[in-house]
Each structure stands twice: as C-alpha cells, then as structure tokens.
C-alpha cells in the first residue's frame, strides 16, 4: 500500500497548530475530510472545500448544490491533488470563520499491509473553538481568557473554561479514536453515515442549549449513556417512560417550558433519532461500540474524567429505570460485579464512608478506557432476561444463569489472551 505522510498546518495561528498524518494516497477527498475533522479537532458543523495548486476547487455535494466550477470531492482522491513530496493544497473549513489548512506531502512510502495506514505521527496546538470568529476572533478569545480584567473575560471562561490550553495536543487520543473508528480502510465507516451522525449530535446539542429546558435536563453525554443502558436493557421502555428522566435526571419530575408545539416535536424527534442510532449501533455493530466521550475533542484528562462521569450517570439512570430488573441484577453476585464500574464512575458511591477520594480517582482513571467493553459485558449478562421479556415470559421468574465467559476473562481456548481479543471477537 502506498501511504502519504503529510503535514496539515492551520494558517495564521499562533501558537502554531499542525498535525503530521499518515494516510493512504488513494483515499477519496470526502474520506480525507472526515479524517481532517477528527485529527484537527473540528466538529463538522460547516461547509468545506479543497483548493489544488492548479486552483481547481473540490467540495461536498451532500445537502446542497455545488457552486459553479466546484468539483464533487467524492469522485476524486487525495493523489489527485498531491502526488510528489513538496506538493501542496488547501483545505478550507467554515466559510464564515475561514479556517485555512495547508496540506503538504512530505513523503511517499510503500508499506506491505501496514497495521495502521491512518495514523497521527505528531502535532502541536489545540484546535480553536468552533464559531469563535476566525483567526482574529481566536486571538481576541485567547486575550480574554488570559486577562481577568478584559471585557468578555467572564463570558469566555463560562464558554471555554479557564484551563483552555492553546498549546495542548496529544496524538494518543486521536490514534485511539482512529483505531477504534476505522478498523481498516476497506471497512471505513460510510462518510454519509458519519456526517449524518455529526449533524444529529450538533442539532441535539443546540436543542439542549435552547431556552425553556430545566437545569436538571440531561447533558448530551448523560443522554448517550442513558440510551446505551436502555438499548441493552431487558425491558423495552416507551418514550413516555424515559423522557421524564431526560428532562430531569434527578427523577424529581421537572418538565420543560416549551415555547411552541414545533419545539416539542423537534426535541422529541431528535431524541428518538439519537436513541435509534445508539440502539442500531449496539445491535448491529456492537463490537465497535464506544461511548460518545471517546469521539469528542477533549483538551485535558480532567475534562475527559468529567465527561465520562456524566456519561456514567446517564447509564446508571437507565440501568435503574425498572425496579425489578435493578433489584434482580444488583442482587446477583455477577450482576453486581458487572454494574460496579458504572456505579464507581458515576459517583453513586461517593457518599459512602471510608472510601478514600484519592483511591476512587485512581480507580476511575483505570475504568475510563474500558467503559465500552463494560457496556458489552452488561449487554451479554442481560441477554437471557431480554429474551424472556421478548418471549412474553415474566422477568420475575428466577432463572439460573448459565456459566458465562466475560469479555475480560481469560479465553477458554487456552490462548492466554482475553476472551474479547480471541474467540470473543
């Protein structure tokens, strides 16, 4: 396979923001676009286009008409724009903020069946926040964050946090995301599916930010964890059963003050669409399942911890939504063991006396990377109860569970690997 080593630089930014990436030269420009969104840290909320050295322009025909003279990017490959070391092109994102990226081909390498044809080799600098006003707006934002006396400082802190670090970058997060998301070039997720998912998430976040929703409304991360639990739950829950928890995660029953029927319909439609997405993911491609926080641009370990805890709170609300299922699961030794990672991560035991806060933090750090696997373990444990429910049998009937090999247990074939890495693939 011929792979390109390219440097992607965000023009006009100080401190510098750049990435060095290994990518197959025959990747379509539409696929390169999604890779660039991930590796740079953007959220795919705006239009984009490529400009070649010959000034030809390439854009996406998804959702809108191509402008005259703009070629359809899905019909061209990266090698159409760059093919020799030193060749370059531009990738422009968000025609309002006008973020211009220079892509320069540094090396062409022939590799025999590379394990990681997509890989971040290096980089520097955090991605600027979306919709901050382009290069000049970003400079103003950094000044507002640095100067506590500056006009707009408090608003900037509320939006982006005091610990926003413009120089922060770590290849590890991006490579983990790429490895999990793209298990092989031939198996790359359909770009249209990726775009639809990102659009749905953006619309759902906008809805959650709208006026009229109680402060107790679930965050986007809580909703993702909540829907993950409902997707694998033994009992099928109707919207009228789970929606009250979305509006009020505490269970106290606060209701949103919607301003119109249109807002009600939009909110319900977004919730159902996203729930269907999570259900499909866990039923059709469960081996690739990851919680939402694994796909987000995260600037620090502290932020990742907070987001993962939010997600776990949502999962626990879903896990406890049916009293009988909860009591039966938590009352079983295996079920309680499988629930424990979610309980610890969500903070449900934070009030328990005698638990060292430092020890809890250490345990949570160890749990974060495995949360997706814990969901699959829980799905496997609940599967017999789910079959009973779908068959119309009472879940109250105690059924002796069959011996089960956990995904993290040694594989019974004797390979020495974990079951999930061997026969459990």
TrEMBL record:
Name of the featured protein: Plasmid pRiA4b Orf3-like domain-containing protein
Superkingdom of source: Bacteria
InterPro entries the UniProt entry points to: MM3350-like_sf, Plasmid_pRiA4b_Orf3-like, SEC_C_motif, YgfB-like, YgfB-like_sf
Coiled-coil regions, chain positions: none
PANTHER family: LEXA REPRESSOR-RELATED, TNPR PROTEIN
SUPFAM superfamilies found in the cross-reference section: MM3350-like, Sec-C motif, YgfB-like
Domain Plasmid pRiA4b Orf3-like: 3-171
Species this protein is from: Chlorobium limicola
Any Pfam family hit: SEC-C
Lineage: Bacteria, Pseudomonadati, Chlorobiota, Chlorobiia, Chlorobiales
């Amino acid at each position: 396979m011929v792979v390109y080593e390219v440097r992607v630089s965000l023009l006009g930014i100080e401190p510098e923001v750049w990435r060095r990436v290994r990518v197959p030269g025959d990747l379509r420009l539409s696929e390169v676009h999604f890779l660039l969104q991930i590796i740079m840290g953007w959220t795919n909320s705006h239009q984009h286009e490529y400009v070649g050295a010959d000034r030809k322009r390439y854009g996406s025909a998804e959702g809108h008409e191509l402008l005259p003279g703009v070629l359809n990017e899905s019909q061209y490959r990266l090698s159409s724009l760059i093919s020799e070391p030193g060749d370059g092109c531009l990738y422009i994102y968000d025609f309002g903020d006008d973020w211009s990226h220079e892509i320069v081909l540094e090396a062409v390498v022939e590799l025999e069946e590379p394990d990681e044809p997509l890989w971040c080799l290096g980089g520097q600098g955090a991605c600027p926040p979306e919709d901050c006003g382009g290069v000049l707006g970003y400079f103003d934002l950094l000044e507002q964050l640095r100067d506590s006396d500056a006009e707009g400082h408090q608003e900037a802190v509320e939006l982006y946090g005091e610990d926003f670090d413009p120089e922060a970058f770590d290849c590890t997060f991006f490579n983990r995301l790429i490895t999990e998301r793209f298990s092989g070039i031939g198996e790359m997720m359909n770009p249209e599916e990726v775009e639809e998912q990102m659009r749905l998430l953006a619309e759902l976040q906008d809805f959650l930010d709208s006026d009229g929703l109680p402060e107790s409304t679930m965050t986007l991360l809580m909703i993702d964890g909540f829907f993950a639990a409902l997707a694998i739950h033994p009992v099928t829950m109707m919207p009228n059963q789970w929606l009250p928890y979305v509006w009020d995660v505490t269970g106290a029953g606060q209701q949103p003050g919607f301003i119109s029927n249109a807002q009600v319909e939009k909110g319900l439609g977004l919730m159902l669409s996203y729930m269907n997405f999570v259900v499909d993911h866990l039923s059709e491609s469960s081996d690739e399942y990851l919680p939402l926080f694994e796909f987000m641009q995260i600037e620090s370990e502290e932020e990742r911890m907070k987001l993962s805890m939010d997600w776990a709170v949502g999962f626990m609300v879903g896990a406890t939504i049916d009293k009988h299922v909860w009591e039966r699961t938590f009352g079983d030794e295996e079920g309680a063991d499988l629930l424990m990672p979610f309980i610890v991560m969500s903070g449900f035991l934070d009030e328990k006396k005698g638990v060292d806060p430092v020890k809890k933090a250490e345990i949570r750090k160890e749990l974060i990377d495995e949360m997706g696997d814990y969901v699959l373990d829980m799905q496997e444990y609940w599967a017999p109860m789910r079959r009973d429910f779908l068959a119309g049998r009472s879940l109250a009937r105690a059924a002796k569970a069959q011996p089960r090999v956990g995904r993290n247990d040694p594989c019974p074939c004797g390979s020495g690997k974990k079951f999930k890495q061997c026969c459990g693939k």
